[in-house]
Amino acid sequence: MIAMPTRANTLELIGNTPLVLLEGPSEAAGCEIYGKCEFANPGASVKDRAALGIVRDAEARGELKPGGTIVEGTAGNTGIGIALVANALGYKTIIVMPDNQSKEKMDTLRALGAELLLVPPTKFADPCHFVHTSRRLAEETEGAVWANQFDNIANRRVHIDTTAAELWAQLEGKIDGFTCAAGTGGTICGVGLGLKEFDETVQIALTDPHGAALYSYYAEGELKSEGSSVAEGIGQGRITANLEGAPIDTQFRISDEEGLVWVARLLREEGLCLGLSSGINVAGAIALGKRLQEQGRENPRVATILCDTGFRYLSSLYNADWLKSKNLPVFDWLEESA
Question: Among 22, 68, 152, 175, which one is least packed by beta carbons within 10 Å?
């Protein structure tokens, strides 16, 4: 057994996450599909990376002073990451979140000591949108900085510097494609730009849920949404600063139902308890693997992001009554235990 290296401090636990070959998705795609285990971060999601990158950037620019406050609008996971980073560095945290996100995220933020403000979900154009509310709060709070994860490119920069570099090293430079969904756009753009620096031929695919507008933007040049999704933290209706210049080669639109198939299979067959965004990402990775083979690539390797733990959605995604209320299929084991 190889001993894991000792970390100098808790913030060094963020990143350097494992990469795992996913057996079921690989069989379905006819090629190797890998998942980056971002649930292994201290805050149990990929957003820990953005949180640390944004906070360190604010410190470096002199905006965040000792004892200051970090304010952010988030679907939850970025807020959790910021709260943990802030605790480790002696800052306070104020989080604004839509009130339709999972109860587990809300409870976690409160448990971490963050001040939590819940607002009704609304369109981005509405001044009461959670992003705009968090910006105003930051402006009104003495000693506060606004994390601004959607348009702060420190977000995507951390994925260029860490996530992309880790994937390249873990796959020993043998990677043909990468895909994930976009929330802020930091992950898909940052990893895409980083991998393209290593090899321009790596194909970067957007995997978009229904209800988001980016699929049509990259396919047809127009921001246009169709349908809806219950997936939290992904789906975007505008080109954020983090998405500007994203090297998207192709795009897929994945339904909640298709994503749930892989959430169920990865849990029952491979022991991974994940959120719906991970299921949607895996479905997109399978689609990308098939497309690469159609284009003539032999035995391509595709990587995606396993965004967060399913334990964050016990009251929703893993609750039979909630799934029925959304007209979504119920996992068979939930039906059996009802």
Answer: 68
